[in-house]
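Worked Example 4.2. Read the sequence first, then its structure tokens.
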Amino acid sequence: RVHIHGTMLQNGSSSDRTLTFRIKYGASTIIGDITAAIPRNALARAFALDVWLAGNGATNAQTASAKLEYSAISNASVAGTGDLATTEFVPGQTLVGTSAVDSTAAQTFSVTTVTSAAAGTQTFTRMYAIAELVK
């Protein structure tokens, strides 16, 4: 399980409001999905991304899920200026996928994001990440 927290900025045009998540295990892209449109705002908002990778009944079968949630109030959770009663996280969509990688050999696990436009008006910045082994 991996928890990633940070800030995101979506301040581009209306067509610049999505992120593509690529979650890889070994050479296999388990999840390569595009998020729903993220509301545009000039201020950064906090986000939390949770990713689960699990065996699926055999050493060469895996399943993964990922969920992105972000602050409903721009900059509130980031700068500490928000009212806790109104600073809520918007429920995100859950992304799922499967792979067939030999987990008895050493494998690389990676989580990357790609913004829908290469512009400074759209950023996704990791502040920290926590990886846990759950048995």
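Now turn to a second chain, presented in exactly the same format:
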Amino acid sequence: MTDWPATRAQQIAALEAALQVPGLPEGTKQQILEQLRALQGLDSIQGTATVSGELQGNAIGVNLGTVQTFFGGAQPPTSPAGQPARTATPEQIADQRELLAAHRRTLAVYLRQLATLGSAYVPPSVSSGIREARVGVRQAKSALRGWGVEVEDLPGEEESA
């Protein structure tokens, strides 16, 4: 196993020595300085996280942007007045519409299987798939409506009583 701190210290020493070479071209010097800063900066990785709302589930990893996570029956965040907490970009709206369409296609497949087999003979996986697809449809519609986007309610998206 490699001793990373020792290896890094050797790399830093080699770069510092290279900077002392007389007549070093400016472009090369800048590249060496960038590499040196990168290696030296590994000890001082810092950051901040601003969390608002509630996360239901696990959050692991690095976020370089905005992450929206909705699990179960969670609703998108809203202000106290019930208005959307923030506006969405056109890309976010397009992504959510695409996700809604995918959940609707999945639901349609499962509903066809249910109609073909009948409720007495439907496998548990079909019933479970219907429930999951309906949850996905509800979440996507809720997110879009939270952003002020009109979304049509289609037959079969909600369980009939």
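Notes for the reader: Residues 138 and 157 are 8 Å apart (CA to CA). The helical segments are 4-19, 26-40, 90-117, 124-146.
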